[in-house]
Amino acid sequence: MDIYKFNKLYGTPQSRTLIRKALTSATDVGSGLIPENLEQVITNTAVRLVPELSVPVLKYDPQKWHSFNRLVTIPAAGSAMGENSVTPIRNSTYHRTSTELKILKRKGSITGFLKAAAKDYIDPAVAEMESHIQSFGNDLRTYILFGNALADPYTFHGLDYFIQTNRLNLAGADQVPVDLSILDAMVDANTRLQGKAHRRVLLMSPELLSVLSRHWTTVRDVRNIPGTKDIEVQGGYRLDSYRYIPILETSATRPLAQMGAVVLSATGAGSGLGGAATYFVRVSAVTWDGEQGASPGANSIAVTIEDNLILTFTAVANALFYKVYIGLTEGSEKLVKIVSAFTYDGDGTIATVITTITLTSLPTTPDGTTVPTALQADTPLEYQTGDHLMPNEYMLLWDLDPFQGMGKVAYTNEAGSEFGGLITPMEVANTDDNYPFLLKSYPALIDAFEKTSYIVRGIRTK
Hints:
The chain is of the alpha+beta class. Among the domains are: 53-70 and 94-158 and 408-442, Major capsid protein gp5 fold; 263-377. Helix content is 15%, strand content 28%. The protein has helices at residues 3-10, 13-22, 112-117, 124-146, 159-162, 181-191, 206-214, and strands at residues 57-60, 65-73, 93-100, 104-111, 167-169, 200-204, 241-242, 245-249, 263-267, 277-287, 290-291, 300-303, 308-312, 319-327, 334-340, 342-344, 350-353, 356-359, 393-399, 408-411, 424-427, 434-441, 443-446, 454-459. Strands 5-24-19-6-8-7 form a 6-stranded mixed β-sheet. It is globular and about 90 Å long. The termini are far apart. The relative contact order is 0.18.
């Protein structure tokens, strides 16, 4: 277009007004003409602290079962004898123990068009694989901490299941620490079993670490300050270890939300629930962020001769397990059952997320399969926030010795390149205009010796 025609069409104020009315920057109007300058670093709103994957010993073990011998008892006491005595034979006791390695995998895919169209901006295949690796890492962390192979046979047991000897549920005023004695109790229990020379780690939330750090009252600043009118110093201090045990801040020990309401109902007429009684029920979800706050209290149902107690709820995002707490009075609820958050088809493929849990026997009798005896004293984690109350939390001392602790994760997948070989990425044959990929791992946490680790439940920051 020459300059004469341009000025004739666009040179007058009236013509420019018409152009503005006809073409705006609105979506599907003129927005496509505006050049974009996108930042190539994608903002990640799903980040979490996942230090747990960096601390265990990863052992490649090409077999389905990881087997090891456990020394259970040493020869009994008594060595003083008479001069002509016949020395009796005493022996140690050994148990052969095996842990089944489980299959973890997830698949992703991008279309050929997306790969071509985004070429000059970012490699979508790499970006999507990194997102899947992060999700895989979140799953692995949750199984290591909260896995229960009897509630979900496709997972392996985690620390929350294994740690039974040193397991403490705090209540009342004990929930808010006023000093560091709770840390001393954890470390002393470990040291009593020769854990002092082991690799160990304390796991807690950043909020709890802040509170415990404020109890370190012996800190005194002895730096020389030049004689100036205005004195400026760097403030604040934080424990990075306690009695030479590193402290790792994690996002899996402090609840971020409360489970929604649980609707209770009963069916049948065969006395399966044990006769007339009133049951108080609470449910909590175990997600990528650990065990969450239990559903609201004061939730009860009176039954007579029904067979089944049915718990109905809205599925919780990213839930992997649900814990059921039941009691005969409000506030007396204890852990009675743990269930998987998924249903599976006959091949073990995830089918649906669950929204109901059905109990077919006396509700206050714990399911000894998914809830061993030591866990039956566990109480719900409260999720209360405000000026005076904060959520109940977990705190763990994890002994990382592979033989006198639980610091070994065995795996049998080959050619792993992520998380020290624990995760194996592999390409999948594409049968259409797409680029599929798969991540896999065949791991399990090995419970060589659980007595050197420690769990505290119910601790609060205030």
